[in-house]
């Protein structure tokens, strides 16, 4: 007798584990991502209308008023109920908020490495080591002049913050379609770049020097 093989659906692949920052960006827990996204967005919007000092001062006053009110409320409750719960922020006061020397050193080393790599790349572009790359860099700078004319710095920061919390999730949801379109764009750009380099003698010389 021929046994009928039951078709079983392959179990969906579990989402990869991510760090706390990536979990916020990918909205793994909306209860955490929502307040972070909304709180920072409100602060950025406030900075567009008020000075940095005013925003920091009002925000600090708001937090201080809340903690003082909560401390007074807990003292009244303890006095009425005659309990000795102690300071309401005892756990927070006992938390170690000092920076670790190893962590600071690690972050500093990573930052210095990125800065050095950026300096080397800028030197390569400004001194025209590769003509095509320098031309593309020039086109990017020319585009940024129009971008700066349309938006101010704070508006760009707000757009970047919104994009940080939307684009990664959109890409994760539509990864297959986006990757297919990106491959087409990369292929076209590679063809155009190769044709430009083939038409420019300087580009050929630079490639020959790299191969040697």
UniProtKB/TrEMBL annotation:
Task: Specify the protein's topology with respect to the membrane.
Answer: Multi-pass membrane protein
Q: What is one term from the GO cellular component aspect held by the record?
A: endoplasmic reticulum membrane
Primary localization class, coarse: endoplasmic reticulum
Domain Reticulon, residue spans: 21-212
What keywords are annotated for this sequence in UniProt?
Answer: Endoplasmic reticulum, Membrane, Transmembrane, Transmembrane helix
Instruction: Kindly name one Pfam family recorded for this protein.
Output: Reticulon
Task: Spell out the InterPro entries in the cross-references.
Answer: Reticulon, RTN1-4
Segments spanning the bilayer are 36-61, 139-167
Q: Which residues form a coiled coil?
A: none
Kindly list the places in or outside the cell where this protein is found, as annotated in its UniProt entry.
Answer: Endoplasmic reticulum membrane
State the protein's name: Reticulon-like protein
Annotated source species:
Aromia moschata
